[in-house]
Design goal:
8-stranded mixed sheet; 5 helices; 2,3-Dihydroxybiphenyl 1,2-Dioxygenase, domain 1; Glyas_Fos-R_dOase_dom; alpha+beta; about 280 residues; 16 strands; globular
Length: about 280
């Protein structure tokens, strides 16, 4: 259904916007930034808004991923060389990170100053992806070839051209409810399951635009203000597809405008659809 789908702006809550901007600028490499006292907007080199940081000094950090909400946002690098360059930069600054080879992609995992999870990854070509007999995509978690990636590193000069928001991964209350909502209402496809613990879905045959898991201790949203993700954006270029999804999601819409609407999923995450 979704032939022309991209992810856009993710809104993150942070406790100190100036401290966060320093991290996203000096460690990840954003240079196109609009900053005011309480908010910062981070753009790709091509001018696409990828992340908005909103300050809430009262927000609590979320050690150990206690509650339903953000697991990580995922920035997609255009090639292996640019990811290797970023890894070299992270190592030079002694940034704590994890890594994994997921067969369809190679990824490293870091956290911003508030503990918001960030995946930095590159995709392998779609022609190399494998599928089960039932059509599910084959993904795994194997050791990352850090040495091979590091060997490809060039001189770091901030984020590379072509950086995009690749996918979103959240902790959810109930996988069955999430699957029903994203499949039956929003019309996304199940790509694979990780037992009964995680679910991966997408549009346009991608390995996953959305990851969902039940790994948190408390299957609820916190009642107090916490850091994390407030909202993420899905851009749908095709007007007919946009209208179809809006009609199906009508009862779930919490806000709307002429060419956008916001829905809330069963785990109380806000999703903005934009027809652009």
């Amino acid at each position: 259904m979704y032939e022309h789908l991209t992810l856009g702006e993710v809104i993150l809550t942070v406790t100190n916007v100036h401290e966060s901007v320093s991290f996203y600028k000096e460690i990840i490499g954003f240079t196109h930034i609009e900053l005011n006292d309480k908010e910062a907007k981070l753009f790709s080199n091509e001018g696409k808004l990828l992340i908005t940081l909103r300050e809430n000094k009262e927000a609590k950090k979320n050690p150990g991923q206690l509650y339903v909400g953000l697991y990580h946002i995922a920035l997609l690098y255009p090639d292996r060389e640019s990811l290797g360059t970023q890894i070299k930069h992270l190592l030079a600054h002694n940034i704590e990170m994890g890594g994994a080879d997921h067969l369809v992609s190679e990824a490293v995992y870091i956290q911003d100053p508030d503990g918001n999870g960030i995946e930095l990854y590159r995709d392998r070509p779609r022609t190399t992806w494998s599928y089960e007999e039932n059509g599910m995509i084959v993904m795994d978690t194997k050791p990352l070839d850090v040495t091979g990636l590091h060997a490809l590193a060039e001189e770091w000069d901030g984020i590379p051209d072509g950086l995009t928001m690749g996918h979103i991964h959240t902790h959810v209350k109930n996988l069955a409810d999430i699957e029903t909502f994203y499949k039956d209402i929003l019309q996304f496809d199940v790509m694979t399951y990780f037992g009964q613990q995680a679910l991966f879905m997408s549009g346009a045959g991608y390995h996953h635009h959305f990851g969902f898991n039940t790994w948190v201790r408390n299957k609820e949203k916190p009642k107090e203000a916490f850091v994390g993700m407030e909202q993420y954006t899905i851009h749908v270029k095709d007007e007919e597809t946009f209208n179809q999804v809006r009609d199906r999601a009508n009862k779930e819409i919490v806000d709307h405008g002429e060419a956008w609407f916001i829905v809330q999923d069963p785990s109380e995450m806000h999703i903005k659809f934009s027809q652009t």
